[in-house]
Amino acid sequence: MTAAMLPLPYRVTGRRVEAADTVTLTLAPVGHRIDPWEPGQFTMLYAFGVGEVPISISGGDGGARIRHTVRDVGAVSHAVCATAVGGVLGLRGPYGHGWDPDSAAGADLVLVAGGIGLAPLRPVLDRVLAHRERYGRIALLVGARTPADLLYPREYPSWRAAGVQVLVTVDRADAGWGGHVGLVTTLLGRTGFTPDGTVAFVCGPELMMRFTARALGDLGVPAAAVRVSLERNMRCGIALCGHCQLGPLLVCRDGPVAGYDVAGPLLGVKEL
Amino acid sequence: MIINTTYDMLAAHPFLAGMDRPQLQRLASWGRRSSFHAGTRVFSEGGHADRFWLIREGQVALDTHIPGRGDVVIETLGPGAVLGWSWLFPPYRWHFGATTVEPTLTVEMDGKSILRLCGEDPEIGYQLNRRFVQVVVERLQATRIRLLDLYDGPRDGR
Q1: How confident is the model at residue B157 (pLDDT cuts 50, 70, 90)?
Q2: Given this model, what pLDDT does residue A1 score?
Q3: Which end of chain B, N or C, is more open, meaning fewer C-beta atoms within 10 Å of its C-beta?
Q4: CB contact, 8 Å: B144 with chain A?
Q5: Contact, A182 vs A170, CB < 8 A?
Q6: Per the CATH hierarchy, to which homologous superfamily does domain B6-146 belong?
Q7: Does the beta-carbon distance from A55 to B158 stay under 8 Å?
């Protein structure tokens, strides 16, 4: 257990500002590296002397380097975001049950991302585009508060070129925005997917995922075909401490990704 | 070459799904095909509201003018949506403006004549009102959700 709780030192080798409060850090192991990871898994990222936070993996280089997109929303994430190139962070993991895109082979894929929820979905895109022939239509629906909050906008053209239908919406437009304005759920009707042959991957704040799962259900997508990434207070990452318990689930072990047929009824219970 | 009549276009539009043939034929008398280039102002905030549009293709942005910020888009409507309900109620003024974002194909409906038709044929009036109420409710719910700030996550979470 000691080894499982011991962070491995990783050096920040790249730092890209994505939005006013969000950065993507590229990390390379100083010595030993964590085990290979799957899309949707997370690590515990340690800012030495400040604390640990669970952060979903947002990409890698196929080797030892790993990317995390982090939003500055508290003391620990602030310290992580502020780490400059050359600085060292601790990393434990990877943990949890991921998106498992391989099991959706043959289906149409609808990826719905709200805010920073695009970060955990980016490895899904990387994986399915590496095996594009295995899947039907692929749609990526992105919602953000404002145009300035959109993640990875420079990558949209390459995703489109790879055959992904990328639809983007914001809640509040500015003068320079010529795109869609409205809820991310309003984009669902424009995708043209086949409801009973679709697997949906939904990631964002819980409220956004609930409304999106409901809208997908209204369109005929079964709850079991909707996968969501749960957020709870994960501390140990190895199903020991119980902080992340959600009914019968320990989210760090049984999640963060779960089918909405399982997660939906639990999310509807207050104070669970 | 296939030529769609106004009836065909109304029958194919999701907003009117479920209305029977005689009802659609009566409505078709007061509709016409209309198309807009991208960037066309369809109507302006405060203008007289006497018609509505069933969007078949393209996108329309609802906007409002904010001093110092110009025309700010508050919502975008796409194929299958209905544009405009201010023609239904006094004072018959557009609450917002509308501009096409893309080349847009619509069926433009004559609001005054439709109101008269609803008076003559209450069943059509009921069917139309049900559909407009549903649209208003959906947009109200969407507005409420947006007020909640859908994309604001927990502190030090993900």
Answers
A1: very low
A2: 54
A3: N
A4: no
A5: no
A6: Jelly Rolls (2.60.120.10)
A7: yes
Choose among B69, B75, B152: nearest Cβ to A175: B69
Tell me if residue B102 falls in helix, strand or coil: coil
- Rounded CA-CA distance A205/B129 in Å is 35
Question: How many CA atoms within 13 Å lie on the side-chain side of B105?
Answer: 8
Give the DSSP H/E element, type plus range, for residue B118.
Answer: helix B111-120
In the block, residue with structure tokens 């110092």:
B68
Residue B148 to residue A207, Cβ atoms within 8 A: yes
pLDDT tens, B78-114? 999 999 999 998 999 999 999 999 999 999 999 999 9
Q: Please report, to the nearest 10 degrees, the dihedral formed by the alpha carbons of residues A264, A268, A269, A271 taken in order.
A: 110
For tokens 């006094």, name the residue.
B90
Superfamily of domain A2-95 in the CATH hierarchy: Translation factors (2.40.30.10)
Residue of B nearest to A188 (CA): B78
Residue A2 has pLDDT above 70, yes or no: no
Q: What residue ranges of chain A are covered by domains with CATH 3.40.50.80?
A: 101-267
Q: Where are the domains of chain B?
A: 6-146
pLDDT value for B141 = 87
Q: What residue has token string 């390379």?
A: A28
* Shortest distance, CA B70 to any CA of chain A (angstroms): 7
Span(s) in chain A for CATH 2.40.30.10: 2-95
Q: What is the DSSP string of A74-121?
A: SHHHHHHHTPPTT-EEEEEEEESB---GGGGTTSEEEEEEEGGGHHHH
- Interface residue A82 vs chain B (CB under 8 A): no
Select from A22, A50, A186, A267 the residue whose CB has the most chain B CBs within 10 Å, as the one to mutate to test that interface: A186
Instruction: Give the global pTM.
Output: 0.88
Q: Least CB-CB distance to B153: which of A144, A174, A205?
A: A205
Mean pLDDT of A197-218: 93
CATH architecture of A101-267: 3-Layer(aba) Sandwich (3.40)
